[in-house]
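Researcher: I'm preparing a figure for a lab meeting and need a structural model of a single chain. I don't have an experimental structure, so a prediction will have to do for now. The sequence is pasted below. Please return the structure as C-alpha cells so I can convert it later.
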Amino acid sequence: QGRMWAYTIGFTVLPHVGGFFGWFINRKEIPVWYEKLKKPSWCPPRRIFPVAWTVLYTGMGYASYLIWNDLGGCSSKAIVPLGLYGAQLALNWAWPLFFFGARNLKMALIDILCLDGLVIGTMCSWYRINKIATLLMVPYLGWLAMATCLTIRIWKDNPQQKPGKSE
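Model: Understood. Here is the structure written out cell by cell.
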C-alpha cells in the first residue's frame, strides 16, 4: 500500500519535470522575444500559463497512473495506451523548444497538430480502461485546442519570424 503512493506521486509529478525544464531553458526568451510577437486579443495573459499547466500536468499525470494501475503496471496491455501517452508527452515537452528555443513557429505548429492527434488517440485508447482517467484529459484537450489556435494565429500573423535567435 505504501508503495502505491510512491507510484501515484511519481506518475503525477512526471509531466511537470519536462514542463519545468522547458520553462527553465526558455524563460529568458519570453520577455525578450515572445512579448514582441503579434498575438490575437484573446491570447491569455502570461501569468495564466504556469497556473494552467500546473493543473493540466497534475491531471494528466494522475490519469496516467490510473491507466498504469488498472492495466497491472508495465504489462503488454499497457504498451499502446501508455505508449501513446508517452509520445504525446514528448511532443508536449518539445513544443516550447521549437517555439521559444528555436523560434521556429512552423515546427511548433507541426508539433502541436501532431500533439492534438496523439492526445485524442490517447484518450480513445484509455476510454475502455478507465473513464475517469479519460475525463481527466478533457481540460488538457480543451487547453490544447486554444493553444493550437493561438499557435496558428501567431504563425500566420508573424511571417517575418524566421527560425533562429538573430535579432
